[in-house]
Design brief:
alpha+beta; eight-stranded mixed sheet; 9 helices; 260 residues
Length: 260
């Protein structure tokens, strides 16, 4: 095998591995495999070293040497950018992502992993201008299932009361308990087809000097992560506490009397 053929095969291997890395990133949106990166860095460095060795063996700087070195440097740089680009979001940056995820959902049912629902606005007044809240109202889902905390303070109760009044009988609340533990998972599950679910999960992370941001995972039924989140939802929903009618009356009353 000639030097030219050897370098060509190495470059093809390197490019093929790079697109495998890119596919791994695209399929698991927001979740990157460090093993892929380490393997690819190793391959690229090895290709560059082999190229340099062949340069000394051939005692000549040929065009194939230049091309191979160039491809190696481009692939290494691109990989570094992919693995160090912004993969977390502030609340303001997260909202458009959540809205875009929801916009093509089937109208039969939407399932929400939630906390105290303050992502829909802290006060009733804020909720009236909150993008996520306005979208949920405008899409008129047949059913919205919300797994959330049981409200404690007046502001939180008013928030829940407003949701009940605005959405009539389309919202079902269920609450975490000692069995159905709150794992601090936040996100939603949508239907895009009768047999196809998609999941958007976001987790709060702390970034030094920046405070709290969110890392997201978006996946569909073809990915094992989606199956895990759906199974977790089904388990938590089955074992969580049903929201009581008396509580609903209290929350609506608090909302009606809340100073907006």
């Amino acid at each position: 095998m000639s030097t030219k053929e050897m370098l060509f095969n190495l470059v093809m291997l390197q490019i093929g591995t790079f697109f495998g890395l890119l596919g791994n990133i695209l399929i698991g949106t927001g979740r990157l495999s460090k093993r892929w990166a380490i393997a690819f860095y190793g391959l690229s460095i090895a290709v560059a070293l082999v190229t340099v060795i062949y340069m000394f063996i051939d005692r000549d700087f040929k065009i194939e040497h230049l091309i191979t070195l160039f491809v190696s440097l481009v692939c290494i740089g691109s990989t570094w950018v992919l693995f160090n680009s912004r993969m977390s979001y502030t609340t303001a940056q997260l909202n458009p992502k959540v809205i875009k995820f929801t916009e093509d959902a089937k109208k039969n049912v939407l399932k929400l992993f939630a906390g105290d629902l303050n992502f829909l606005g802290n006060t009733p007044t804020e909720m009236d201008s909150n993008g996520q809240y306005l979208q949920l109202k405008s899409m008129k889902f047949d059913q919205i299932e919300i797994l959330c905390e049981k409200p404690e303070g007046l502001t939180t109760k008013a928030r829940y009361g407003k949701i009940l009044l605005d959405f009539n009988n389309t919202v079902t609340f269920k609450h975490y308990n000692q069995i159905a533990t709150d794992f601090n998972i936040r996100g939603r599950i949508k239907k895009v087809h009768p047999d196809i679910d998609k999941v958007l999960i976001y987790e709060k992370i702390h970034i030094p000097d920046k405070g709290s941001e969110y890392r997201t995972v978006e996946t569909d039924i073809n990915n094992s992560d989606c199956h895990l989140y759906i199974r977790l939802w089904n388990l938590l929903w089955k074992n969580s506490d049903v929201s009581l009618a008396n509580d609903h009356l209290e929350w609506k009353k608090v909302y009606s009397e809340f100073d907006r």
